[in-house]
Design a protein that fits this description.
Strand order of the largest sheet: 1-2-3-4
Helix content: under 10%
CATH topology of the largest domain: Methylamine Dehydrogenase, Chain H
Oligomer: single chain
Strand content: over 45%
Order of helices and strands: EEEEEEEEEEEEEEEEEEEEEEEEEEE
Distance between the termini: 23 Å
CATH class of the largest domain: Mainly Beta
CATH architecture of the largest domain: 7 Propeller
Shape: globular
């Protein structure tokens, strides 16, 4: 999921429907769809060009769409399993994990590939630390976190993980702290981005898929298929769980919007209930 802050519109990849759905937060209504996708996995809204980029896990295509008309404007072919997407608005660069092991860097304005960084296996969640000039990448099949230099686009370090299935990642850029969500077992780990040293860890919802850090409240939000959203406070040395919100089983995809004080969770069809977005206030 991602948000158009100006229009207060959320875009989210509906993997099972092979579409991107668009929801108006002000009115709580679906206002459009981008259809005929191929296992949409990740997306990002690009304010500078008013486009939405969507990565397709099925055919590896990364498609660009006008955010008003939803008409496709460009496509970049990566070959296979295009996945997580990050957008650097300062550098106007899009970062996409894909295939058997790679992060591709795309110029957001001209839709051209400017770098292709090879990794030992398929990347999952990753984050940019612009101040440190690094990209940190979860590579669960290799049981490690890879560190990429933003300037040289080269792999500069590898940290072996304590637990297995490290999928989502969040970051506190101001203090250079990474938050890693593990599935085997369900653990949330905070580590120093300078050397990978573990600061603190705590039990986490099972089947964790999305993870967010709110720098204004120093809270970490985690959504997982295990049937809850976990919220933790973090004081740069230890975690304290402050909320455990029951959700529909399998509801894993979420989005934190700090400027609106909202946390949004996508609940898929199940138990006789239709798919829906749950919207939570983060101020209560």
């Amino acid at each position: 999921m991602d948000v158009n802050l100006k229009l207060q519109v959320v875009y989210f990849a509906a993997l099972g429907n092979n579409s991107v759905e668009i929801v108006d937060l002000k009115n709580g209504k679906a206002i459009g769809s981008i259809k005929e996708l191929n296992e949409p996995q990740g997306l990002a809204y690009i304010p500078q060009t008013n486009e939405v980029v969507v990565s397709n896990g099925g055919n590896g295509n990364c498609n660009f769409y006008n955010a008003n008309s939803f008409i496709k404007t460009a496509s970049v072919v990566l070959g296979s399993d295009a996945d997580d997407v990050r957008y650097d608005s300062t550098g106007e660069k899009i970062y996409i994990g894909y295939g058997d092991g790679g992060i591709v860097v795309i110029d957001a304005v001209n839709h051209q590939i400017v770098a292709n960084i090879k990794l030992p296996a398929h990347p999952e969640g990753f984050q940019l630390d612009r101040q440190a000039g690094k990209v940190f990448v979860n590579v669960p099949d290799s049981k490690q976190i890879d560190v990429i230099d933003l300037k040289t686009h080269s792999l500069v370090d590898k940290w072996k993980t304590k637990y297995g299935a490290n999928f989502p990642m969040a970051i506190d850029e101001n203090h250079h702290i990474l938050f890693i969500g593990y599935r085997h077992p369900g653990k949330l780990v905070a580590m120093r981005a300078s050397d990978g040293k573990i600061i603190s860890e705590v039990n986490l919802v099972q089947d964790v898929d999305d993870l967010y850090f709110d720098e204004h409240t120093n809270k970490v939000y985690a959504s997982g298929g295990g049937g809850s959203v976990n919220v933790f406070s973090f004081d740069r040395s230890k975690f304290k769980q402050v909320a455990n919100i029951p959700t529909r089983s399998g509801a894993r995809t979420s989005l934190l919007i700090p400027s609106f004080n909202l946390f949004i969770l996508a609940e898929r069809t199940g138990g006789g209930k239709e798919a829906q977005l749950d919207i939570f206030s983060t101020t209560k």
